[in-house]
Amino acid sequence: MERELETLFEAQKIESMIIEGERKLLQAPRRLRQMEDQLSEVHGKIDKEKEIIEELEKERHKKEKELEGEKDKIKKLEVKLYDVKTNKEYQALLKEIESAKEANDRTEEDVLVLMDKVEDLRKDYQSSEIELKKLEKESEVEKAAIEKETHSMDQVIAKLTTERDNLLSIVSENLRTIYNILREKRGGLAVTNVRNGVCLGCNMNIPPQLFIEVTKNKRLIQCPSCNRILFFREND
Ligand SMILES: [Zn+2]
Hints:
By secondary structure, the chain is mainly α. The protein has two domains: 28-171, Helix Hairpins; 176-231, no CATH class. It has four helices and three strands, in the order αααββαβ. A three-stranded mixed sheet has the order 2-1-3. α1 runs antiparallel to α2. The longest helix is centred in the middle third of the chain and has 83 residues, at 87-169. The two termini are 20 Å apart. The structure holds zinc ion (ZN). Zinc ion binds next to loops.
């Protein structure tokens, strides 16, 4: 019996490694998704920046057209100065030219402000593009690493599963059945060590007399609290 219990104990160790491997495998899609999210966030930022730059450029073109119109207007008014007959008309025209020039100055100022803004935004846009390229490169590397890891983990799990099944095949059918049921019901942990009178599966005390029995590994004993198969091995 001791031999069989020990075999189950070893099978359990492998089982726990399989569970850990599967847990890691499940993390891979999450890591990939996180990377995708990060990438699309930077993409979104860049698109927004581009959109704003385009809008401001449109406004600048509009203002530049206005500026041309205003300059034409001033020229025409200045030509008219030669044709006026009275001083009153002359003064009125001068006033009109003056205010057209003021408007022109304001428009010019607007154009300059817009150009400054666009220049700053272009700098942001360029650094966002560099950030994106860097992130894309990192993602590629990480993705390849995850794929490689996943692939080798698949192989490791397959190998461990064979080892576990080999071990389980040499214990009695009765023990194997109990093991499989407990594995299902107890989160993959069917066999557990004991220490200082405590079941390491559920951390509950085992009655002293029973604990002494357990340390002998002579018969199948299950934890009174969690039902797990108990096996005693020092320093493990
Ligand atoms: Zn227990």
